[in-house]
Amino acid sequence: MVSLPVCGAFVGRAAEVAALQDAYRDPAVRTVLVAGEAGIGKSRLVAEFTTRVGAQTVVLRGRCPEFGAKGVPFAPFVAVMRALLRDQGVDGLAALLPVAQPALARWLPELAARSGAAETGTDPIRLFGEILTVLEQLASVRPVVVILEDLHWADDASLELLAFLMANLAQRDLLLVGTYRPADSEPLRRLVAGWRRDPGVRLLTPAPLTKHEVGRQLAALLGREPEPGTIARVFERSKGIPLYVEALGPAPEDTPADLSELLLGYLSDLPGHTGSVLRLAAVAGSPIRHTLLEGATDLAEDALADALHQLVYQQLLVATDTGYEFRHTLIRDAVYHDLLPARRKHLHAKLSQVLASERDAGRSSELAYHAYAAGDLPLALEAAWHAAADAENAGAHGDQVRHLDRVLELWDRTPDAASRVDADRLGVLEAIVAACHRGGVIERGIAAADEALAAIDATAEPERAARLHHYRAGLRNQSSSGGEDDLLAALALLPADRPTVLRGEVLAELAAARVFSGDSAAAESDARAAVDVAEQLGNRAPAARAYAYLGLATADRPEAMAHFERAHAAATAARDPGTLLTVVLWESALLVASGANEAAIAAIQQGLRAAHATYRFVEAGPILLVKWAQALTALGRWNEALDLIDESLTERLPPLSTAALLLCHAEIMLARGAADAAATSTKTAQPLLGDRRWARKYQIQLHAVQSEIAHAAGHPQRAAEIGAATLAADDLAAHHHEAWALAATVARTRCATMVLDAVTERLPVTTAVDAAHRNTCRAVRSGRPADWTAAVSSWRALRQPYELARSLLESGEAELATGDRSAARTALRTVLELAGELQAPPLRERAEQLADRAGILLDEPTDRAPVAQRPSTAGLTPRELDALRLVATGASNRQIAAELFISANTAGVHVSRILTKLGAATRTEAAAIARDRGLLVAGG
Fold it and tell me: 422: phi > 0 → left, psi -120 to 50 → alpha, else beta; which?
């Protein structure tokens, strides 16, 4: 009997192994993705790499099953966590995750028995965060490599979890390695296209073997040097694919038409029982549970064991802890496709019968796959319905939609379908719409909602129809097409005298839509109604959101902050971190717009802590970082703002957040006289904003900065034209905060008075910042000292030193025009002081030029204290010193990030730079060096 040839020697791939080892040693690399066609040697390459990582390294493996994309939620990660459980034991795993009722217990019954069963309806982000915590905690004591094979078969939920881990991993000595076939997964290809830009991700694409390497592989297979002609023939036929070389090696003259035929040639003389087990295994798919084979075969236990032993011996199957895997999926594919259709259906039927008798939780998707392939449509429909429920419980909404679509496909082909799933067809459509709404599956969700609304009798079932309108509104909002019409339709179907959760949600979302469209009066009415419903029902999370929207709707009144205080209290009582983040996001936006920047920073830091605690930094962090940078910029804390911007721009931020930070950078650099740097930032920001409607306020801000740059370059007419074109738009009322800032910029050009007068007459004034800009416009228009005094008072009250200095400068000029040299001198002296604090040379130069023209002497203070000599910092920046002090306490990267309000990745970058600058190999060594050099004292 001939075994499938296997080359024991590892041939070629030196560069690829070296690249994997480099990635393993590089703390900045979190993930390596190995891409290549079937048989190229991806798994062999990764296996070789794992033999070189050292005995202390924990290697955890998970493989995506072949029918995984059809709905086995989290399959490779369940395997990884079970491998970790075997390595650490249940007590060791619980020590890595010291929480009660962990979401991870849903996967691991042993952990549920130890720490309590998972709560129902657990937020998927909590599960993701627990997996991240376990891996990072383990990596803090031992290096960890997680291998994820065959990601082209990964289900949607696994891809979401993979993306989460790649975005959030921050622990050194933790590396993800994935293998995939680029041609076999469109969802994965789309993700990889984005990951290519991530410096923490490396992509490897092993090339086919060279002719020389094919010769070395043949020599290892044959145990002797092959003839030159043989090498040439095998190289030509195999095209350098290692698996094909192995199959061709023993008989290079007898070359079949394709690889499948060649592989099947090695199986032709298998004994009957052994061949039947191999065919059953091929139909089961890889990996294969032993218990499933045992239940589906007609062989006695000993005969089955003999057959499996023979298959493993002949290198066709590989034994695992729970069953078997094909040594290569191409072998499985060859065997499966060689089966006659009737035989294939028969084996699928046997497997589905075993799975139906087991009825294990989590096996429904496997049963649905085999029952469908067997042609047992009633069983396939029932199993798909149960698989959808399993996917919903796991938070795998994309998989849930796929299973529900299968139910719809089988509905008209299955007798009594409604009785089999205890739902009518409209109910299945409703379930699809709800799953799409929760999982962000937009196009399919809208299509299903359209079909459901066309089928429903809204008069007979108004609440059911209202719920569908509500879901479609959410889906349309996610697609940027707007859902206000659906919200109004839903509200019209719900009785006003009966408070329900649905009515409250519709009112709250309608309030939000109207806030952002600029209809504050209607938004306030809807928000108050939403608050009433939520309070009557005692629903704290909806109440928190409703109070937040009420705060936004009443932003021009003092009561707004009281509404946000109630929103905070309700979110805290609800113990819902997602709702708390929503409240903080809108509160910080309101506080920054109203000029309460110190309060905004306090709220932002609270939000960043919550984002870290709930693993939502990637989701919520960018918006909060933008608001923080805007607040620091307004307060004149420019060095802090620049540090924050530099840190944040090292992250992979959404385009809108990146653009907003670049605009803050441009404002500061222009004020400090670096016009070229400001122009570069605005040019980079412009394409990120595009002409998208939701970026409108930042587009207005961009035009304000561009106008300032043109004015600073000595082109006031061009500056006025840039601003006037934007001020002529008809949507300024919805973005009046940004419009007032632009109006003040245009006013200073003294070149567009007619446009400016028309705009300032119709722009609403809802905050103290709006009023300060209006006062500035009036002062520029009139030139009267009294008007400039009003502008100065406004900016001083807001504690915005740059705008205060600019107003004082023009106030001094106005005072000189009326002959009040003393008032002018006082104003210009203050400008000098502010310019020094802000490090803004253009302000200082303008003040000095004005004083020189007027013959005013601006005496410098002579009693300045001598500048204290700064202690040595070993080249560390202030931010790195802060991180070093936390390193010395034993804080992890994630703890450092939470304390410094930065991302965990940025914290990791700081730690790496600290180690490099101090010449330390470990965090412990760095802490010791810092103590010796006195670097741990604050201010040192």
Answer: left
